[in-house]
Amino acid sequence: MAVRRKPTRAEIRRQRMEELINFPLDWLEERSGLIGGVRYFLFRNVPSDINWMQTLGSAALTAFLVQAITGVILAMYYVPSAATDPHTGKPVAWESIVNISDNLFMGWLVRGMHRWGASVFIILMFLHMGRVFLFGAYKYPRELNWIIGVLILVMGMMEGFTGYLLPWDQTAYWATVVGINLNGTAPFLGPWLAQFLRGGQEISGETLTRFYSLHMLLIPGAIIALIGLHLYLVIRLGVTSPPWSKEAAGMEPDEEEPARLRPGLTRPVPRPAGASAMQAEPGGRE
Amino acid sequence: MEPEQPSPDTEQESLHEEAHLPPPTFWPIGFAIGIVVVLVGLVINPELISSIGAVIAIVFGFLWARDATAELRGQTLVVEPERRQLKEAGEGMTAPPADQQGVALPRVDPATVTRSRFLEGATLGLGGVIGGLITVPVAGFALLPSFLDQKQHKVDLGPLSNFPLSQWFVTTFVVDPAEGEVSRRTAFIRNNGNVADPKTKKQVPSFTIISNHCAHLGCPVQANGPTGAILGQKTIHERTANGPVTLDPVVPAGYGCPCHGGQYDTEGNRTAGPPVRALDRYSFEIDKGRLILLSTYSVSHVVGTGAQAKIYRYKEAGPGEHVDGPEQWFYPLQPPHH
Amino acid sequence: MAAVPKEKPSRVDEARAEFARYKADVKARGKPFYPYAMFHDTIMSVFVVTVIVLLAAIWKWSSWGPGHDPTHKGLLGPTVDPPADPGTTSFVPRPDWYFYFLFYLLRIFKWPESVFLGTVGVPTIALVLLIMLPFLDRRRARRPSARPVAMVAAVLTIISMGVLTWKGATAQEALASEVVQQVPHLIQVEHLPPAAQPGVKLFATAGCTACHTYAGVGGSNLGAPDLTAIGTRHLGIATQIKHLQNPSSVTPGSPMPSFASLGPQRLHQLAVFLEASKGTH
Lengths: 286, 338, 281
Hints:
CATH superfamily of the largest domain in chain B: Rieske [2Fe-2S] iron-sulphur domain
Number of helices of chain B: 5
CATH architecture of the largest domain in chain C: Orthogonal Bundle
CATH topology of the largest domain in chain B: Rieske Iron-sulfur Protein
Strand content of chain C: under 5%
CATH superfamily of the largest domain in chain C: Cytochrome c-like domain
Shape of chain B: elongated
CATH class of the largest domain in chain B: Mainly Beta
Strand order of the largest sheet of chain B: 4-3-2-7-6
Distance between the termini of chain C: 72 Å
Oligomer: heterotrimer
Shape of chain C: elongated
Largest sheet of chain B: 5 strands, antiparallel
Structural class of chain C: mainly alpha
Order of helices and strands of chain B: HHHHEEEEEHEEEEEEEE
């Protein structure tokens, strides 16, 4: 322990600043307990050998957030009506999209980000799923997390399907006709499901408003809830080491069969002992 | 009187409380209501309502002040501090065992209906009723409108003179002018001439009117043949009660679908590809010399051509749904159609 | 491995023990999420957002055709499509690209009895398998070299989905509305004389290209021959007309439908065109 000397002015300033920051945080923590949760999330330990492929999950989350934010902004200007504008003879929904792209400041950027963000989101989800498969990270105890992830993927594709109709142009209309009729071919309940999705016997303005409700409210709500569960499980169960890593967390001490070792090595790589070998800072609560 | 003070933490506080704090009363509420009535009356009706409000405020204010100054005038008041009664273990409740942290379940003698069980049942029952009262109409609203009120539309396509004999037309029309462009549809129409009605033996016009929705998954079917531009024939534009009707002459050798390769012949029979049946047709009537389209129906196949065609008709089914053969049993019940 | 006399622990117990070791390892040797892992995550997120913004910008600026016509197809397609027309007869519907593999599956299942396999059967089975994966593969091995079945299945799945997606992207039907735009190109590459030009327009719109290929245009179906150089066979106008009127009378067993409905004048124009098609040189 160092001998206490008189603190310098810089140290006093720093100490005051820390107190200033800590005061509201402590206030919140005492009344809600949330700050402790955030601290645990930020300072928990993760295996030291994690790899760049493991950033795909948070990248997919970022893409979803981009979609959510651009979607909320677009919703302020988009009109979900298939009625024909009497002045121009064009559908109102289609016109609102053209208005966003052409007339509004940076409208083309927000619309473009939303449209291409959807593709990026789906690609990242598939890549993330492939990475999890490769790492065998769907096995015990992460089976539930895998199932939730597959549900998020399906919901994401449904979100893309419902959003595709909203510009109400030719590609949108006909892709939706086929998509709904696809559902209609399911035995027994198919025709009923298709008629419910369409809001009637044929695609009409009802279909557009219905898909808008699904795209804006129901499916994003489901995705957000599932992502919340997914993240909770990731934090609780931890992130795996790459399975080929020599220092994988959880590896058995004598897991390696002699045949797997490179020629020349007569003993498996010894596991480093505790804090002395690596810079182990005090990790999160376990 | 309802106690309004918080329960005292320390003995000292309680002594202080009983000595100095005013007793709990309702009068301030009445006073506040009086003030509000005065202010509202200023907007609505100053003479009548504000006066009433003033009277209320004065009366309650006087009563409040009288209570607040009670001890100054020498009246002693006893105020009961709020104390919570420790409930004795009620009937049926058992203390949780020391090593268990969970909630102890009440062990109830099943022979008697105790008050707690009645309350449980009543809560669940009433909760169910309230839930049902809210959910059922809402669910009905969400689900039923897609299936009810499916209107039949009649489409006026113009006079019969627009349809010369044995000429195919790619006809585009608007089914419901109120809905607008979203109800625009296309049909392939040919006037087959007159044919003897089997029942009345009179000569009635015969038309082949084929819908252009593919029987596989609903894509827009195209005519395999040159249209008016290449044939050198003019497109007829007609304006009827249903809106604009376009008649584009075409000489088709058949019909084809651009999505997954379905092919049909000129009677709508499937000749190649994944469509599960023939193209749907429109039923029609002739009203005052004008061709009127009625509702669509599904067709499994057609034998023969033109006016002599034998059409195997079924109630309208969605694309991709078989209407005959063993697969029809996959779709036993169709949602309500017009 | 020498036989061990003691009882082997169950798979679940081993998995639990491994998880306990994992937690101890992470506690002892792990690094705090912030700043180490979060730094990587942040870089990747910045990259993702940059890519999205770039795509949006390229979409807008590359579709800025001459005269700022938004229907001009730029690098990433047009920014504006014509408004929905439920009565169209010239549009080729396609879903969004991430559904192309399902779309092409529908083109594979061409027999009417098998349609529901392509629409709901195969996708549902695939989804069920995906969800049930942790219960189908309960082995503890996680290294790729120790999971041959999983790796082979993954590679097959990725390759087949890739192929289906690509084939879905390149699928064409060659119906009248698409082929008629190729007519000037066909006239040029086949050096068709003026007498043959009415016939090439008929050929493009009569649906011949649904089954025949011609100078790189059209689809090959039901064994229909390529017609690029049909004129070099010198079949003669009369035979051509007879064939068009009644194909099985010239080629027995031919599945080609009759085109007699076009009328004798148009059949003659088509025959002239076919006889003038001597190939692209």
